[in-house]
Write a structure and sequence with these properties.
heterodimer; A: 258 residues; alpha/beta; Rossmann fold; four-stranded antiparallel β-sheet; B: 290 residues; mainly alpha; MetI-like fold; 2 domains; 11 helices
């Protein structure tokens, strides 16, 4: 069982524009936490703060704490590269490395960190690809270029790549929004199966998806362009979708805005 | 209405078609005219230059004035030496500068570096030659291949930097993020993901710069001087193909003049091969990243 994350007073900026204000949120270990909310509500920004990818964008920065066990990811001596060794990420658009084969893509993280044991790499690749549900489809195409696959296969390849380094937390930024329904189903199956082994945080536009796969759901909102986005409510998914406490959550879930 | 309209409409369609054909023809014509100089140059140089091209042309050195035979072996060797060393200097410098500008440079320094590269790119080559003459040739007290290489580096470096930076920017940011999110350090991400992905684009940049280096005359004239004999010592005056063409073309001896044409054919062939190669590579790159 992996550690969860405890987000304490997290704020994020682009230049002087504060886009995220003072988020307090607990990500429980071994669960799937979904973050929902309308476009521009800061859910991707929050997600990217959790493995310190936010600060890779020009002029972007974040303050506050994200506790991972007793490690504050935002402590001055905390190295973003170390953070990302433990907290992996899957992006909205599939992004396999075009110069690499399917196999090389899956083990890219291991190789780039200096693990060269070939047999071990093969085992890890197979394991990760099974977890991501692409092993049966791609086991005969391991030496084909990763960029030649269908969009759905590429995305599951990227999930396998993220899993191959055995992260304790996996962040997924609308991982199925660019995929067809069948691929979406496969990605959702993967998420459900990974539960208990990996802590998952998923940003999604799709409320049915959040309801289907998550244990807990967080609702975020940026009420006006002048004010930063904030976490409105987080609760058990069933509770959130049946009896949300906040009126704004209820309005969003019932489709009155967003 | 339908009884009245068809004739006029048909007429206008025919007119429009005729206009369209006329303009298309005009555009074809201007396209063809643009080709004329290139075809004429290549054709003329080939007619004048090919007769002299034989085994001796590539293996023998400069003939004495007024004598038949001889070749340009010393010039080919010299160009190889000067451009080779120039490439060794300018590729690492150019690629590293481009990596800095594309992957790291955000502040004022990057703006300055980019501006300097831009200025260098449009520096007249004779100025580069004169500068290196003053700085290198006078301090070493000798014209040399290496001085020529340094002068060429001044010209090739900004070409490689500019073209490489552009290819590096074509590498999707998604790939950089994917690598960083795997816990890969930034320098390794650049080295193992960004540069290989931009690979053939960088090679294209190098080929364009080498093609430029082959053809430059002025900077070599002031730095490498020329040599009638084969020289492989980078510290000695060295011959080069464009230099030899320049010298022979103004001479009174017909054999020297025809050797100059032969040199022109070789240069043209080398530059064409490099340009076409660069074109093929960059097309392939576009398709892969497309």
């Amino acid at each position: 069982m992996s550690d969860g994350l405890d987000i304490v007073g997290l704020s994020a900026w682009y230049g002087t524009d504060r886009v995220l204000a003072d988020v307090q949120m607990e990500i429980r270990p071994g669960q799937v936490t979904a973050i929902i909310g309308p476009s521009g509500c800061g859910k991707s920004t929050l997600l990217r703060c959790l493995n310190r990818m936010h600060e890779e964008l020009p002029n972007a920065r974040a303050t506050g704490s994200v506790m991972f066990g007793d490690w504050d990811l935002y402590a001055p001596d905390s190295d973003p590269t170390d953070v990302r060794l433990h907290i992996g990420m899957v992006f909205q658009r599939p992004n396999p490395f075009p110069t690499m084969t399917v196999f090389e893509n899956v083990v890219a993280g291991l190789k780039l960190r200096g693990h060269y044991d070939r047999v071990n790499l093969k085992e890890r690749a197979e394991q990760a690809m099974r977890q991501a549900g692409v092993w049966d489809e791609l086991k005969d195409r391991l030496n084909k270029p990763g960029g030649r696959l269908s969009g759905g296969q590429q995305q599951r390849l990227c999930i396998a790549r993220a899993l191959a380094v055995e992260p304790q937390v996996l962040l997924m930024d609308e991982p199925a929004s660019a995929l067809d329904p069948i691929s979406t189903q496969l990605v959702e199956d993967t998420i459900v199966q990974l539960k208990n082994e990996v802590t998952i945080v998923i940003v999604t536009h799709n409320m049915q998806q959040a309801a289907r796969i998550s244990d807990r759901t967080a609702f975020m909102l940026r009420e006006s362009a002048e004010r930063p986005a904030a976490l409105i409510e987080i609760d058990d998914t069933r509770q959130m979708f049946t009896k949300p406490i906040d009126k704004r959550t209820e309005a969003y879930i019932t489709g009155r805005f967003g | 209405m339908s009884e009245l309209r068809p004739p006029t409409r048909l007429k206008s369609v025919a007119l429009r078609k005729a206009k369209s054909a006329a303009f298309t023809g005009l555009l074809w014509l201007t396209g063809a005219i643009a080709m004329v100089p290139l075809v004429l140059i290549i054709g003329y140089v080939l007619i004048k230059g090919t007769p002299v091209m034989s085994g001796a042309f590539f293996t023998q050195t400069a003939p004495p004035p007024g004598m038949p035979g001889g070749g340009m072996a010393q010039a080919f060797m010299g160009t190889g030496l000067i451009v080779g060393i120039g490439t060794l200097f300018s590729v690492p410098l150019g690629v590293l500068t481009a990596v800095y500008l594309s992957e790291y440079g955000r502040g004022r320094l990057a703006t300055v570096v980019r501006f300097v590269a831009e200025i260098l790119l449009s520096t007249p080559s004779i100025v580069a030659g004169a500068f290196i003459w003053a700085v290198v040739v006078t301090t070493m007290h000798s014209f040399s291949a290496i001085a020529g290489s340094i002068a060429l580096t001044v010209l090739m470096w900004p070409i490689i930097t500019r073209a490489t930076e552009e290819t590096l920017r074509l590498v999707p940011n998604d790939l950089r993020e994917a690598a960083l999110a795997l816990g890969v350090p930034r320098w390794k991400m650049v080295l193992r993901i960004v540069i290989p992905t931009a690979g053939s684009g960088i090679l294209t940049a190098v080929m364009l710069a080498v093609a430029r280096g082959f053809g430059e005359t002025a900077p070599i004239l002031l730095t490498s001087l020329g040599n009638d004999f084969i020289n492989t010592n980078p510290l000695q005056p060295t011959d080069a193909v464009p230099l030899r063409i320049y010298n022979y073309a103004q001479s009174a001896f017909t054999q020297w003049q025809s050797l100059a044409w032969g040199g022109a054919v070789s240069l043209l062939a080398a530059v064409l091969v490099l340009s076409i190669g660069a074109r093929i590579l960059s097309d392939r790159q576009q398709r892969r990243l497309g």
